[in-house]
Amino acid sequence: MPPWLPRAMMLAMWIVTAFGIVLWLFVRLQNLIMLLLISLFLALALEPAVNWLHRYRWPRGPATGAVMLLVMALTVAFFSLLGSMLVGQVLAFAAEVPAMIRAALHWVNQTFDTSYSPTTLLNEISSASGVVEQYASAIADNVWGAGTTVMALLFNGLAIALFTFYLCADGPRFRRVICSVLPPRTQRETLRAWEIAIDKTGGYLYSRALLALVCSGAHYAVLVVLDIPFAFALALWVGVLSQFIPTVGTYIGGAVPVLVALLVGIWPAVWVLVFVIVYQQFENYLLQPRITAKTLDMHPAVAFGSVLAGVAILGAPGALLALPMGASLQAFLSTYIRRYEVEEHHLLSAAAEADTAPAADHGEGDGPRTDDGAGTGHGGGRAARGADGTPGSAPSPTD
Length: 399
Hints:
Elements: H1 4-28, H2 30-55, H3 60-112, H4 118-127, H5 129-141, H6 143-169, H7 171-179, H8 184-225, H9 231-244, H10 249-262, H11 266-291, H12 300-314, H13 316-333, H14 349-359
Helix pairs in contact: 2-3, 2-6, 2-8, 3-6, 3-9, 8-9, 8-11, 8-13, 9-10, 10-11, 12-13
């Protein structure tokens, strides 16, 4: 037996054992890892506002608490309005059920030459009461499970709030501890990546909030003019949902106002649908490129694909984390991707015209330029290349 074979077998055994332990820990701590990822995203999103308050001599702890309380208040108000709208619509629908049943019976009797009456229908429904009682008993048996789920959600929410507070309030200390175990060059790259993540995540949140405000205001004005009930809650629903589901969020959110408008009449529903479609085009081609040009400049198809990938990997939290993580990764990698001069070709004419337009107004001091038209804003990255495509000199460590 070669002398190295026992050592190699022992090393392989230790590697397999370590991999099994890590996999076991990952499965056991999957919920905790998810909570930490969500908390880190929220901390990165809140840090620009906390830093702004800190510049006005607010301590980081009270500044973080004030920003978190504001976000929680807005979230509670949003769900309270949606809850009131849902209850109101259910009550309105229940009040319309008898008239709808009478109209449906009249149409059935005229179409199929039958003689059904509301009394006969009530007898048929009462004969099926046994099935309804079975479903009711099943729901009663699941009350304990529903209560346990609510308690778990409440505990997870409190854990996310606690982690978010500490990651944001003690952000400088946390980054200093991480950098203390890294060599100097790795420290610079880590801090560069962290700064990009803060800029992209904070910019994503605030730009989406501004777009949601504009979208809610426009839809609210139209719903009020058309005299649609629960106009404010419906407009807020469309504004929030449209900004966190790229491209198709406006249509998904606009389906609810269209359905509610059907209770008023067919023409109000048609006008609401037309406005939803027109506003989506206005937002995609005029409003959104100007607001998100320096915060989250991603192609709509790439953004929608990122959300789908995030949902496939992490579930519902992945939809929230996908866009800022994708934008941060895009901005960080664009610093190190080597680029070459593109040859002239008729298939590239439209792309060349689109690329040359924003290049003219690119000001100084914006950092290296990427394909999406946004600089990283950190002054680092590769040097400019000559016309022959040869790379320039690499930046010094002080860059």
